[in-house]
Amino acid sequence: MTSRIYDWWLQISVDYNKKYTPTAYFYYDNIVNIGHILNAYDKNANTRITKYPAVFLLSSIKEQVRVDTSILFKPLILIVAESKRDYLFNERQENTYKPTLYPIYEGLKATLAPYGFKDHIKYDRDYISGALKEQSLHSGLSNLFNDSLDGIEIREGTIVLRERCTKIR
Asked: In terms of CATH architecture, what is 3-161?
């Protein structure tokens, strides 16, 4: 991933958190490193650190660099919030999705819209921490994503980053 995409993601986090609630923590990296970062918070904290809700931009991104120097890419984004393993469907909806995940999703869509983000695929992922833990097991790591999380996965949306034009005198 180029620094342009990384810098853009940092700006997206600032823009989102200035305008929308609930606010969220934004992360950019591969899923294993994000797991390490979140687990390190637990190990180094004397008191409980708030890590969620969080928005992850996964860093394995195929970039199409175009003739006009713009970059076109299809990000994989995960929005996650703490939940409880034993929640039933209606409890997840009332306690996690409606108050936290859906508002973040809507705010994030609006924040991404100026970059051409419109059509995309959205998955509601009950107990997404199970899938994230399974993914980390494939990497030989068994202790990542021990938090109970529900989430929304966003994929196949297109982002276009254009160079800012400056006037030449």
From this structure: 2-Layer Sandwich (3.30)
pLDDT tens for each residue of 88-122: 999 999 999 999 999 999 999 999 999 999 999 99
Question: Which residue type sits at 101?
Answer: L
Residue 123 is which amino acid?
Y
Domain ranges of the chain: 3-161
- Report how far residue 143's alpha carbon sits from residue 141's, in angstroms, rounded to the nearest whole number: 6
- A 10 A CB-CB count for 88 gives 10
Residue 64: CB atoms within 10 Å: 11
Cβ atoms of 28 and 9 closer than 8 Å? yes
pTM confidence score: 0.87
The DSSP-derived string for the chain is --HHHHHHHHHHHHHHHHH-SS--EEEEE-HHHHHHHHHHHHHH-SSPPP--SEEEEES---EEE-TTS-EEE---EEEEEE--TT--HHHHIIIIIIIIIHHHHHHHHHHHGGGT----EEEEETTHHHHHHHHHHHTT--SS--S-EEEEEEES--EEE-PPP----
131 φ/ψ angles, rounded to the nearest 5 degrees: -70, -40
Residue whose C-alpha is closest to residue 50's, from 21, 33, 25, 27: 25
